[in-house]
Structures are given as C-alpha cells and as structure tokens.
Amino acid sequence: KINQTVDIHCVTTWSLLDQKFSGISFKQILDLVKPKKEAKFVIFEAKSGYTTALPLDEGYLLENDVMLAYEYEGSPLDPDHGGPLRSLVPQLYLWKSVKWLTKITFLDKWERGFWEVRGYHQRGDPWLEERYSSQEPPKRRDHKIK
Questions:
Q1: Is the dihedral of CA 74, 78, 82, 83 positive or negative?
Q2: 99 three-class SS
Q3: Terminal-residue alpha carbon distance, the chain
Q4: 112: which of 58, 85, 116, 120 fits an S-S bond (Cβ 3.0–4.6 Å)?
Q5: Among 65, 101, 61, 66, which Cα is nearest to 85's?
C-alpha cells in the first residue's frame, strides 16, 4: 500500500490540491505483471466500457504517485469518486484516470479511448493545457503518441 498526497486537475479548469489517496503503485503492478516487450500502451477500462490509453514510454505511468487507488482521505473510495478502484494519474487531466476500474490491458498499438474519440487530446497534460485533439501536432493525430 502506498499513500500519496496529489493535486488533481479537471479539463473544465478546476483543480483540487493536496488530495490524499492510498492504493497500489502502478510500478508495482508492472513488476508483478511483467508485460511483454511489445507492450507500448496501457488501456484502463471501467465496468461501463469507458477506456483511456496511455503510453508506457512517456514516463507518466512510471511516476511514483501513479496508482490504483482504493482509499481517499483514509476511507474506502466512494463510488461517486470511482470506488471501489480507480486508476490515478495525477500528472494528467482526470479523464486519463479511470473510475470503477475493472480491466488493464497492455497493447503494442495505441487505441483512442472514450474522450479521445470525442475530440480530446491524446495525452491531456494540464500544465501544457492539452485539452483537444486539434492541439496535437499532425503526427499525433494518427495512432502514435510521439
């Protein structure tokens, strides 16, 4: 179990600072699962079918505060906030953190997730204000992240 205090950011321009989550480090999941060398992307999927994809090679998923969260402020994660389990990637907008997580898939190619097929940015970095796919360089608009 890891405990992290993180800031979270919504694409609609609000942020919550110093939020306390507990869970399992995503790096620990990678150590246990040992994805094949061909795996370049991770798909997080919710029970509803909601998905988002992130690249393994850009480093976001390897940050120490990325986790599968099951507690918030010392209590079990409330269903309204994604409980019993959600992915949490605090460096990116919250649409890249999947509530009600039920499945993690490692793939060799990128797939657009729920919001990306609706015109949101592939990466979603709040510090770069990456909100919409129209902000992506032309190379990014195909299936590659880099």
A1: positive
A2: coil
A3: 32
A4: 116
A5: 101
Spatial distance between the Cα atoms of 146 and 141, rounded to a whole number of angstroms: 10
Residue 127 tokens read as: 């510090």
Alpha helices (H) along 52-132: none
Name the token pair of 19.
Answer: 């939020």
pLDDT per residue over 67-94, tens digit each?
999 999 999 999 999 999 999 999 998 9
Q: Tell me the pLDDT tens digit for each residue of 22-73.
A: 999 999 999 999 999 999 999 999 989 999 999 888 778 888 889 999 999 9
The pLDDT assigned to 111 comes to 86
C-alpha neighbours within 13 Å on the C-beta side of residue 75: 5
| 94: helix, strand or coil | helix
- Lookup: tokens for 48: 């509803």
CA–CA dist 105, 113 (Å, integer): 13
Q: Report pLDDT for 20.
A: 96
